[in-house]
Amino acid sequence: MLIDARTLPTDAVVQADVCVVGGGPAGITLAAELLGTGNRVCVLESGGVTVEPRPQSLARAESVGLSYYRVDATRFRALGGASHRWISARARPLDPLDFEARPGVPDSGWPFDSEHLTPYYGRAHRVLGLGPFDYDAASWEKERSRLPLDPAHVVTTMFRFGPLDVVLRRRQRLVDGEDVQVYVHATAQELVADDLGSRVAAVSVASGPARRFTVRAQLFVLAAGGIDNPRLLLLSTGAQPQGLGNGHDLVGRYFMEHPHTRTGMLRLQGAARHLDMSLHRRRSFPDATVQATLTPAPHVVRARSLLNSTWWLRPIPAALTSPAAAALSAFREGVTHRVRVPHALGHLRTLVSHPVDTARCAGELAVERGRGRWLTADRAFVELRAMSEQAPNPASRVTLGRQRDHLGQRRARLDWRLTGLDRESIRAAQGILDQAVREAGIGRVERPLGDERPPALIGGGCHHMGTTRMHPSPRRGVVDPDCRVHGWRTCSWRAARSSPPSATPIRR
User: Fold this and answer.
1) Which segments of 379-450 does DSSP mark as H helices, in order?
2) Rounded to an integer, what distance in angstroms lies between the CA atom of residue 250 and that of residue 229?
3) Reduced to 3 states, what is the DSSP secondary structure of residue 410?
4) What is the mean pLDDT of residues 391-395?
5) Quick check: helix, strand or coil at residue 206?
6) CA distance 192 to 202
7) End-to-end distance of the chain based on CA atoms, in angstroms?
């Protein structure tokens, strides 16, 4: 059932067993899993059914660290959240080494290993429409071969792709049913503790600048993402002046992204220019859509105390290997992602001093890149695009800024920071790949990270993580291994169903 919170009377009280704050992919999936369990489930979504300018403005945030996308372009206040722009675009299970405490990577390690999550991956595949749970590159080779690289250095890894509307279709199940009450235009303002200060008993919700109501529940789930989850905890100062769960100043720290950068290129030699690389292009099969990447071998990553990374390959024409191409690509990334381009003056000088190359590159970049590039017979150059792990860094964080939104709440303040290890790992991974292709006799890697002038732009993947860090100890994490905020009691919530609150439902 869909309910516009603006129809509720001021100071209304909604009773629920489970209250989910956030109507994005995580919140919708959880609520859908609770259908038919006999529990009263309430979902609070700050926006409307679609992305609307006024609610979307609540997603704005200050950004004071590394050059980053405009934050309100990376998350969406609407029922469905990020699925209005992307979801299930690509998926892959976390690698075992991602869970390990690695020497040389401070604060690394999860409180459990990869096997702990293995039983859930098949179920997640069904939810996201990803097909059979199979990430073995051999399953999709058939006539398309992997690059002949020594797996002692580099391995071929697979990503799966699912239907982009899978979450929106799941959302519709909640809207059409009676089991779950979905409130739109309902912005969580503060988590309110009970009289003993031992558990969260309610959440104060705004449906407009001067309109508030309350949701009381046995269990509250924060599913508002890596920026708004810590923001809500920091805004909840009634029981803890420094913010709920923030007794050790950890809420909002360890903000992570998956650093993305286009750096370096693979120059193929001789017969290698005609290698079949179609496994590295997104391909659809009867039961799956997949794409291959190259990843440094796990034992090499462990031995060298590096961060995990993977490389996407895209053949490009010779014209796009010039410095002018890098400069144009940097400006295009800036415009596309609404991000300030570092070293913009240097890039501009490059374009002006290479007018012929600039014109050629502009023509190439104007042509839609994709299918045609893979069909060309001569592929001497392959662009390398990195997606890497970020080192845990307590100085990279989300706090509350001085600016306020139109509901009167302090906006988030993002201070994204990278460490030397983040950059060194990307550079080292390119060295590992270079060694592998040289030993295979198929080419070499040129212009690795740090050799570009001006330097390559390092962006993110709009993957906001880390800000409510998981750890068994409250001195080192915000939540325990069961994702419960340390120090806050959870009640039994399998209560009997009661009558819904008085409200006007919106049918869709």
Assistant:
1) 420-440
2) 13
3) strand
4) 97
5) strand
6) 5
7) 9
CA distances from 210 to 6, 9, 29, 213, 410 (A): 11, 12, 31, 10, 16
Report the side by side order of strands in the sheet with 200-208.
Answer: 13-15, 211-216, 200-208, 187-193
Q: Kindly report the number of other CB atoms within 10 A of residue 134's CB atom.
A: 15
- Is the N-terminal amide bond of 454 cis, ω within 30° of 0? yes
- 102 neighbors 418 (Cβ within 8 angstroms): no
- Give the pLDDT confidence score for residue 506 in this predicted structure: 40
For the domain with range 1-87+164-226+488-500, which CATH number is right: 3.30.70.920, 3.50.50.60, 3.40.50.300, 3.30.2130.10?
A: 3.50.50.60
Q: Report whether pLDDT(502) > 70.
A: no
* Contact indicator for 310, 389 with CB cutoff of 8 Å: no
Tokens of 174: 């909640």
Per-residue confidence at 364, pLDDT binned at 50, 70, 90?
Answer: low
Confirm if 81 and 283 have CB atoms less than 8 A apart: no
How many angstroms separate the Cα of 9 from the Cα of each of 180, 183, 212, 404, 478?
A: 20, 14, 9, 25, 35
Which parts of 307-357 are beta strand (E)? 309-316
Q: Are 48 and 57 in contact (CB under 8 A)?
A: no
Residue 250 has pLDDT above 80, yes or no: yes
Q: What is the dihedral of CA 62, 241, 396, 90, to 10 degrees?
A: -80
- pLDDT, one tens digit per residue, over 80-139 is 998 887 766 789 999 999 999 999 999 999 999 999 999 999 999 988 889 889 999 888
Quick one: pLDDT at residue 413?
A: 98
In angstroms, the Cα distances linking 146 to 7, 10, 141, 277, 291 are 58, 62, 7, 7, 11
Q: Per the structure block, which two tokens stand in for 153?
A: 């250095």
- 330 contacts 452 by C-beta, under 8 angstroms: no
- Say which amino acid occupies 427: R
Do the bridges between strand 219-222 and strand 443-446 make them parallel or antiparallel, or are there none, so unpaired?
Answer: unpaired
